[in-house]
Structure formats: structure tokens, C-alpha cells
């Protein structure tokens, strides 16, 4: 899908407004939009709203073998996904230029700045280390995805807890959260990216450009910085010439913004921690704004059960009884069971698989099968046809019963659409 | 005769929904069932790629994004379940040679994910104002090892269950539009689960109605 | 005649809701001279003697016999005779390609402007805004726009846009703005003088005396969707007093 084109009049108006120090949403030049940080109900999940821009980050971990060049270090992996949900211009499964640029910037901002102690992620040197994976999903693009992504990623990393491990000799045990409390990552500092857009060849500067501002900007400067005023990465795109003083001024602006955002993240983390300690509910479900008319929530509701039993038994009873006789099994060769003369048993392969998965030991399996058969006998209403192989019988029965059911359905529907027909036939196939 | 008894607490976890929460998509919704939540966005009817063009109806694409990693087989099968349900309820022939894209982002999986996806999808399609012949909702039932039927199971209940089934049910006659099952169960159990799901769907459809009514409360 | 429907006017309906019109209604359909013929508008479909709702929204009625579902939508589907704001995306031969937010680009002939001849081509650049009317709009054909009315006059249509801002609002808001006695428009008029071009496709072009005022009007319009009339009037009053 194509994005809506930008008209000349919008471009002219935006540039004129910027000259007059006005922005579309009434912000001042150096203002950020409203930032909202929400944590999910599990560890390492973070939602960031930057105005209308929405981003979600999820951190996960896995034990892997380390890289040969760095046997004592854990691995950090970042993936920023430009989901088509965020903008019609984003396509699935295609690495666009923007995607590469944002991924690279996120890596430089968070991995190359060494903000996370990767050595603490080592479990057994050269053999087992933690790989920390950060997935950032864009949900809605209203400009400045980078800043939202960096805030979401670092907040999620701060929020994340990895499972505790114990080493006894060669044995590595991973403890579940019930056994031992999970451990937070050790984070040295929190780099945050600040985007500054330039207009008219660098004459005008705006912090946190929105989508339409991004479209008319001449260049973009992304500065990643922590609250100690250490620059972690800096990238200028768009090919504009900046003076040394301009870059210095930008870094000063960035340092102010970074300290504001860091405070916000810390506050959000603390808030979440107290909420968790108090045992209160947290997470996305709680963040749905109740006062909006577009939102609605219900409490837990029980389902009215009256009449369910009757309808079920009536359906089962009215369903045509399965044919009483099943063709007697054929034993052409010892060890082979076959139903229907001269026909290949199509259930053969599946049967084998079933057997494999249900029980490893063949002796045990036989006992189990017998038990199953007993159960079957008890539970079934229809006359039991004697077949020794219980697995086969069960399958046979399903097919037999399903057949009249589907035909009845088809009759009921009468003019059912093609899709529905396809759905029922699929159902049959599944069986 | 072994009668499967639905447990006393056949209930749906608290559920909630927010519509029009994203500015870019033509329709969007997030649906929450207990801790499980899914966000959905719809674009369309929009321009279609020539390779995907269908001359007499709209092309519906459903994309499911997992929370961690890239979409895999599990997501593909969920996509197919949701797509077939949507195709059955949407009036696609009204917009030939155009594309409808439905994107589902899993925000948290705490059980009954597929039914949550279906509910979010329906709300988003409704929000986008697309013409539909009927609404649909998803209900998941689990049968525990003791033979108890649990509706809207949590992740732990799903894990312990002997069988798990998800049905998409239409709003007009409460018929089953799609079913997806796992594990083994008897016909009796299947019918029982369908009957319970149909009962449960009434609650969800009432919720749909309430939330749409609330949404238009300022336009009355 | 349509008592079943009339009872529900103003109610919120959902896709799948059905109305059964009795046999007398079906009879009247064949009787073309009578005014009882039901006109099913957007969101309502007729199938035999039943009426099916296919969109969620509020049921509206216009005397004597028009019924439709009013919904809040964002994506535009073209309809013949409606006027929209389009963005020219390409010039190809004799036609301009115009994006109007639908599923396909519309074509706009260079002769479909007031006073245009083969020699005297209109001055239209890529990226310009045009206010135009659909002459062909159905699901099976490429939509076609013109910037002249039946008598060859511009009648307000054509290229425009200098000095204003284009914003996107919901289709419901556009219809409320264009309604004959729109209270929303009346409220806006009290604020300060401004120029509006409203396309049925949800695009609104705003120009006021200054950039600041244009921005205020644009932001007010975008927030109107989710406000009751009293909330809106309060907000407008605050703006008038210089509160914002």
C-alpha cells in the first residue's frame, strides 16, 4: 500500500509555520510530545506512547553458546520491526531503508554504548551465555519512531528479569520464577536517543518531529546520550551541512531532554515496582483509559449454563446413528491391519505417529490402549463394534459420526456460502 | 456412561476493548481477556498489488505478529483461522480489486490467544466501518484431564488440559464458523463445548453492542 | 409503513441485525408510483423482504422513506456526484492521476476544467490540491473526476490550496460539517473568519487570517469528533476568550 502523498500546500504551510515558530500541535520548538510509559504484566514488556506514535518492546532471553571471539560475554540482539500496522507504507517481510537505519541506530545506541554488562550474562565461559533479545514493534507511526523505540527498549531492559541459574559441576540448572526470584540485568547507564529535525538547510530546528514534519524536513540529527551527558552515538542524515556550534547546541538540548526522559523512566519503573509489590493489577489491561467512550470493560462473567446439557444430548441423539457395521478388518500379512478390502489404509502413517507420541514403551502402550478401550466402551452410547485395534476404532468412530453431522449442517444451512462449506470440509480433513 | 460435566465456574475472564486507539489505521481495536491482549489494525479498502488482485472481490490479508521473534508456523495457522472467519463474515464483493489488511499484534499471551485475536479482529473490522453480513466472536474451551470443561482458559489451564478448542461463532444464528482443536475428545464433549461456546458468545456479542453503543453515545 | 424501522431510529445497530418487513411492504415496492418505496442507504442492504444491517452505527431516517446507518469511518469509498479534495500525483498523457484516499487513483482529464481547450491547458502541477466531483464512481470501474458542473462552469471546483492547511478528519465529521443546518459550522462561524473546503473523503482544507488561527481551527476540527455539542461549545468559548 502506498502512503498518502504530501500535497504542495501542506509543505508550504508547514515551512511557513516553522518560520513563524509554530508547530502543528501547538508545541514549542524544543518541546517533546506527551510521553507515556506503560509496563506489561510480564517482565521486560514496555509500551511507549509519544503523542500518537506507539511502540512496544519485549525483552526475552535464551541460553546459547557464546561467540568464539568473546567467550565470556553474553549476546545482545536487537530487532526493530516496522509492522504494517504502524503505517500503510510499511510492508511485511521487506527490509526497507528506514528499517535498516532504525535498527542500526538502535544497536549503536544500546549495544555499542556498552550500557549493559554483558560479562554478567556469562554462565559457563565459552559454553553457555545468555542471549538477550529485544524485539521492538511499531504500532502506530506518527513520526520520531527512533526516540520512542529507544525509550521503549531501554525501559524494557531495565524492567526485565532473567531466570536465576545454578551451576553444580557440569550441570547447569535454570530455576523457574517460583523457585528462585529472577534477576534484573546490570545496566550501567541509560542511553536515550533524541531526534532533531532541520529545515531550510539548517536554519530552523525542531525537537521530536511528528510525521508531517518528518516529511518536509531537510535533515535529521539523532543524538543518543545518557544522563551523565555522555554521547553514545550521533548520526546525521539528509546531507545537510551543520556548523560546529549547531551540533554543540543540539547536544545541549539533547542533554536536557535526556535527563527529563530518564527521570520519567525511573519514575515509571518505581511506580510499577510498588504496584507489583502491593500485588495490585498492572499491565496493559489496566492502562486502557476507562473514561473514553471508545473503551469499555466488563468484569468476570459466568456463562449461563441452563439448557446446555439438554441441547447437547438432543443434538447427539438426533444425529444419525453411525452405521452399525464396520467392514471387518483384513489381515493380509501378519502384523498388518486393514479396513476395507483391497483398499489401502490411509490411517496407517498417522497411527504410527500417534503411537510414538503417546507412549514410548510398547508394552505400556498396549496396556494403555486397552484401558482406553474400556473407557470408550463405557462412554459410548452406540453399539460397540468389536475391533481389536483401539486406536483405529476411535478414529473410525470419529469419521463415522462426523459424516452425518456435516451433512445435516449442510442441509440446515441450505444456501450456505462457499467459505462455510470450505470450513466444514477443512474440519473433516483435520479429523 | 461417563458424562462430561462442565465445571461450576464456567466463566469468561474480565474482558475489555478499546476502539480507534491508533491514528494511522482505518480501524483499530485492542481486546483484553484477563491478561491476554491483542491489538488489531485494519487498512482498507485500499490499493492492491496486481499480483494479489481478485477481479470480483477484495483481497483480505491477515498478519499476526508474535511478541517475541518473527512470525512462524504457529502465527501462519492463526492467520489462516482468522482470515477464513473474516472472509466468511465480510462482504468482500462490495470492493472488488482492492485490498483489506488486518494486522494483529500479540501484546500478551496468557491463554485463549486465538479467541482474543478473533475478538480483536471483529472489533477492528467494525471500527473500520467495513460491511459485514454478521459479526463473529471467538471462544476457547479447554477440557481438563478430569473431564471438566473450562471456558476462556488461562495459560496454565491450557497447559494442563487434555483438549483445547477454539470456535468462531457468528452473531446471527450462533453457528460455528471456524473451529480449531488440539488434543483428543469425544463427540459428546465436542457438542458440549460448542453449546457452551454458543452460550458464552451471547455475552461477548452483548459486550460488542454495549461498547458500540457507548462509542456512539455522543452522536445520538 | 416502516413502523419496525421507525421504532429503531436513533438506536445503535450492529452488522447482522435484521428487520422483517411484512408482506405489504414488499407489495408496495412493485407499486412504483407510491412514495412508500423504501430507500436503503449506506449500511443497510435489502435481501428479499428482509433488511440487513451491514455496518455498525446509528440508524437515521429522513422523511418520507430514507433510512441509513450513520457510522464513524475513516476510509473513503467513492460515490457518484460527491465532491472530494484530491492530490494530483501524476500527469500521464491527457489525464491527471488524483489520490483521493480511496482504493484506486481517480483520473481527471485536463479538459475537465473550466475554459480548458486542447490549446489552453490548465496549469496543474503534481502535488496540487483539486476540488472535484465524481462522474464515474462504482466498484467495477476506475473512478473519474471532473472540475466542471453540467453546464461547463467551475462552480467552485478546480485547483486551490495556497496558504492553507490540509487536515484529515473522520467521514462522519465531514458529513456533519456539510449538513444543511450544521450546528458545528454555526459554532465555527462565531469563532473567527476562516475559509473551509470540505471534501466528502474526509479531507478538510482550512485557511484563516494567520498561521496561528489556521492551526487553531484545524486542531479544533480534529478534536470535534469525540465531543458532545455542549463540550464543544465550551471549548470554542474558551478559544474565543483567548484561553488557548
Automatic annotation (TrEMBL), chain A:
Pfam families recorded: RNase_PH, RNase_PH_C
GO cellular component, one term: nuclear exosome (RNase complex)
Annotated keywords: Cytoplasm, Exosome, Nucleus, RNA-binding, rRNA processing
An individual GO BP term: exonucleolytic trimming to generate mature 3'-end of 5.8S rRNA from tricistronic rRNA transcript (SSU-rRNA, 5.8S rRNA, LSU-rRNA)
Biased composition (Basic and acidic residues): 365-384
Acidic residues: compositionally biased ranges: 386-399
Residue stretches making up the Exoribonuclease phosphorolytic domain: 32-163, 189-255
Positions of the UniProt region annotated as Disordered: 349-431
Protein name as annotated: Exosome complex component RRP45
Species of provenance: Cyprinodon variegatus
UniProtKB/TrEMBL annotation, chain B:
Protein name per the record: Exosome complex component RRP46
Lineage start: Eukaryota, Metazoa, Chordata, Craniata, Vertebrata
GO cellular component, one term: nuclear exosome (RNase complex)
Domain of life the protein comes from: Eukaryota
Primary location: cytoplasm
Domain Exoribonuclease phosphorolytic: 12-130, 135-199
GO biological process: nuclear mRNA surveillance; poly(A)-dependent snoRNA 3'-end processing; rRNA catabolic process; rRNA processing; U4 snRNA 3'-end processing
Record family assignment: Belongs to the RNase PH family.
Subcellular location: Cytoplasm; Nucleus, Nucleolus
Residues in the signal sequence: none
Pfam families: RNase_PH (PF01138), RNase_PH_C (PF03725)
Subunit structure and binding partners: Homodimer. Component of the RNA exosome core complex (Exo-9), composed of EXOSC1, EXOSC2, EXOSC3, EXOSC4, EXOSC5, EXOSC6, EXOSC7, EXOSC8 and EXOSC9; within the complex interacts with EXOSC3, EXOSC8, and EXOSC9. The catalytically inactive RNA exosome core complex (Exo-9) associates with the catalytic subunit EXOSC10/RRP6. Exo-9 may associate with DIS3 to form the nucleolar exosome complex, or DIS3L to form the cytoplasmic exosome complex.
GO molecular function, one term: RNA binding
InterPro entries: ExoRNase_PH_dom1, ExoRNase_PH_dom2, ExoRNase_PH_dom2_sf, PNPase/RNase_PH_dom_sf, Ribosomal_Su5_D2-typ_SF, RNase_PH
Keywords: Cytoplasm, DNA-binding, Exosome, Nucleus, Phosphoprotein, rRNA processing
From TrEMBL, chain C:
Gene Ontology MF: a single term: RNA binding
Entries under InterPro entries matching the protein: Exosome_RNA_bind1/RRP40/RRP4, KH_dom_type_1, KH_dom_type_1_sf, NA-bd_OB-fold, RRP40_KH-I, Rrp40_N_euk, Rrp40_S1
Keyword match Cytoplasm: yes
Localization in the cell: Cytoplasm; Nucleus, Nucleolus
Limits of the Exosome complex exonuclease Rrp40 N-terminal domain: 41-75
Chain ranges of the K Homology domain: 164-212
Entry GO terms, CC: cytoplasmic exosome (RNase complex); nuclear exosome (RNase complex); nucleolus
Primary location group: cytoplasm
Keyword Oxidoreductase: no
Pfam families, per the entry: KH_6, Rrp40_N, RRP40_S1
Single biological process term from Gene Ontology: U4 snRNA 3'-end processing
Similarity-based family: Belongs to the RRP40 family.
Name this protein carries in UniProt: Exosome complex component RRP40
Origin species: Cyprinodon variegatus (Sheepshead minnow)
Amino acid at each position: 500500500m502506498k502512503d498518502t502523498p504530501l500535497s504542495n500546500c501542506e509543505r508550504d504551510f508547514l515551512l511557513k509555520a516553522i518560520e513563524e515558530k509554530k508547530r502543528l500541535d501547538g508545541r514549542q520548538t524544543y518541546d517533546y510530545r506527551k510521553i507515556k510509559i506503560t509496563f506489561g504484566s510480564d517482565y521486560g514488556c514496555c509500551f511507549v506512547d509519544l503523542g500518537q506514535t506507539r511502540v512496544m518492546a519485549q525483552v526475552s532471553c535464551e541460553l546459547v553458546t557464546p561467540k568464539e571471539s568473546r567467550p565470556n560475554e553474553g549476546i545482545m540482539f536487537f530487532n526493530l520491526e516496522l509492522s504494517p500496522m504502524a503505517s500503510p507504507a510499511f510492508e511485511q517481510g521487506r527490509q526497507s531503508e528506514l528499517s535498516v537505519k532504525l535498527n542500526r541506530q538502535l544497536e549503536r545506541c544500546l549495544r555499542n554504548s556498552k550500557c549493559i554488562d554483558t560479562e554478567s550474562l556469562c554462565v559457563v565461559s565459552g559454553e553457555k551465555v545468555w542471549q538477550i533479545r529485544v524485539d521492538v514493534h511499531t504500532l502506530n507511526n506518527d513520526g520520531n519512531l527512533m526516540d520512542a523505540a529507544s525509550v521503549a527498549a531501554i525501559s524494557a531492559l531495565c524492567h526485565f528479569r532473567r531466570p536465576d541459574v545454578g551451576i553444580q559441576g557440569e550441570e547447569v540448572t535454570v530455576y523457574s520464577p517460583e523457585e528462585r526470584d529472577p534477576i534484573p540485568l546490570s545496566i550501567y547507564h541509560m542511553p536515550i536517543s533524541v531526534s532533531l529535525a532541520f529545515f531550510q538547510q539548517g536554519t530552523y530546528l525542531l525537537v521530536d518531529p511528528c510525521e508531517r514534519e518528518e516529511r518536509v524536513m531537510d535533515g535529521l540529527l539523532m543524538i543518543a546520550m545518557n544522563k551523565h551527558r555522555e554521547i553514545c552515538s550521533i548520526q546525521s542524515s539528509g546531507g545537510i551541512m551543520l556548523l560546529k556550534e549547531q551540533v554543540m547546541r543540539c547536544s545541549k538540548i539533547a542533554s536536557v531532554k535526556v535527563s527529563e526522559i530518564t527521570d520519567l523512566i525511573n519514575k515509571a519503573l518505581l511506580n510499577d515496582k510498588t504496584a507489583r509489590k502491593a500485588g495490585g493489577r498492572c499491565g496493559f489491561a489496566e492502562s486502557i483509559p476507562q473514561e473514553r467512550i471508545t473503551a469499555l470493560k466488563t468484569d468476570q462473567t459466568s456463562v449461563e449454563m441452563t439448557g446446555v446439557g439438554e441441547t447437547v444430548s438432543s443434538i447427539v441423539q438426533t444425529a444419525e446413528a453411525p452405521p452399525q457395521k464396520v467392514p471387518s478388518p483384513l489381515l493380509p500379512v501378519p502384523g498388518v491391519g486393514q479396513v476395507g478390502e483391497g483398499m489401502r489404509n490411509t490411517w496407517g502413517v498417522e497411527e504410527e505417529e500417534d503411537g510414538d507420541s503417546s507412549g514410548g514403551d510398547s508394552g505400556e502402550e498396549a496396556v494403555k490402549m486397552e484401558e482406553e478401550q474400556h473407557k470408550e466402551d463405557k462412554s459410548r452410547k452406540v453399539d460397540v463394534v468389536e475391533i481389536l485395534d483401539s486406536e483405529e476404532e476411535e478414529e473410525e468412530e470419529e469419521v463415522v459420526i462426523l459424516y452425518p453431522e456435516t451433512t445435516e449442517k449442510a442441509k440446515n444451512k441450505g444456501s450456505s456460502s462457499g467459505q462455510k462449506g470450505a470450513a466444514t470440509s477443512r474440519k473433516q480433513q483435520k479429523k | 456412561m461417563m458424562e462430561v460435566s462442565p465445571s461450576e465456574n464456567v466463566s469468561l475472564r474480565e474482558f475489555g476493548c478499546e476502539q480507534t486507539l491508533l491514528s494511522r489505521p482505518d480501524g483499530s481495536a485492542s481486546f483484553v481477556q484477563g491478561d491476554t491482549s491483542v491489538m488489531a489494525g485494519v487498512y482498507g479498502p485500499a490499493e492492491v498489488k496486481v499480483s494479489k488482485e481478485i477481479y470480483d472481490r477484495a483481497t483480505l490479508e491477515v498478519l499476526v505478529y508474535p511478541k517475541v521473534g518473527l512470525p512462524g508456523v504457529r502465527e501462519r495457522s492463526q492467520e489462516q483461522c482468522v482470515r477464513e472467519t473474516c472472509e466468511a463474515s465480510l462482504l468482500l464483493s462490495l470492493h472488488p480489486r482492492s485490498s483489506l489488511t488486518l494486522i494483529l499484534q500479540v501484546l500478551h499471551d496468557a491463554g485463549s490467544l486465538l479467541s482474543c485475536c478473533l475478538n480483536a479482529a471483529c472489533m477492528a473490522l467494525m471500527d473500520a466501518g467495513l460491511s459485514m453480513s454478521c459479526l463473529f466472536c471467538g471462544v476457547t474451551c479447554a477440557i481438563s484431564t478430569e473431564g471438566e470443561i473450562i471456558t476462556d482458559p488461562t495459560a496454565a489451564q491450557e497447559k494442563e488440559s487434555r483438549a483445547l478448542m477454539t470456535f468462531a461463532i457468528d452473531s446471527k444464528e450462533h453457528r460455528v464458523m471456524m473451529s480449531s482443536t488440539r488434543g483428543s475428545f469425544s463427540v459428546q464433549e465436542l457438542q458440549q463445548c460448542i453449546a457452551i461456546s454458543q452460550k458464552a458468545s451471547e455475552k461477548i456479542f452483548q459486550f460488542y453492542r454495549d461498547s458500540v453503543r457507548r462509542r456512539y453515545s455522543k452522536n445520538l | 409503513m416502516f413502523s419496525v424501522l421507525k421504532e429503531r431510529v436513533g438506536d445503535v445497530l450492529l452488522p447482522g441485525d435484521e428487520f422483517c418487513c411484512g408482506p405489504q411492504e414488499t407489495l408496495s415496492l412493485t407499486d412504483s408510483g407510491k412514495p412508500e418505496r423504501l430507500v436503503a442507504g449506506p449500511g443497510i442492504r435489502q435481501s428479499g423482504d428482509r433488511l440487513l444491517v451491514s455496518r455498525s452505527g446509528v440508524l437515521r431516517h429522513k422523511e418520507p422513506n430514507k433510512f441509513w446507518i450513520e457510522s464513524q469511518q475513516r476510509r473513503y469509498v467513492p460515490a457518484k456526484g460527491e465532491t472530494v479534495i484530491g492530490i494530483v500525483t501524476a500527469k500521464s498523457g491527457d489525464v491527471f492521476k488524483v489520490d483521493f484516499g480511496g482504493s484506486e487513483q481517480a483520473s481527471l482529464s485536463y479538459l475537465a476544467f473550466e475554459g480548458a481547450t486542447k490549446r489552453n491547458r490548465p496549469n496543474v502541477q503534481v502535488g496540487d490540491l483539486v476540488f472535484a466531483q465524481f462522474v464515474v464512481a462504482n466498484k467495477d470501474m476506475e473512478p473519474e473526476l471532473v472540475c466542471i458542473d453540467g453546464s461547463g462552469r467551475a462552480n467552485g471546483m478546480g485547483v486551490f490550496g495556497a496558504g492553507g492547511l490540509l487536515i484529515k478528519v473522520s467521514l462522519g465529521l465531514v458529513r456533519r460539517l456539510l449538513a444543511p443546518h450544521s450546528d458545528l459550522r454555526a459554532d465555527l462561524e462565531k469563532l473567527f473568519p476562516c475559509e473551509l473546503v470540505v471534501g466528502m473523503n474526509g479531507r478538510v482544507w482550512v485557511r484563516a487570517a494567520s498561521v496561528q488561527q489556521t492551526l487553531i481551527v484545524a486542531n479544533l476540527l480534529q478534536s470535534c469528533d469525540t465531543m458532545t455539542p455542549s463540550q464543544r461549545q465550551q471549548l470554542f468559548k474558551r478559544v474565543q476568550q483567548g484561553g488557548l
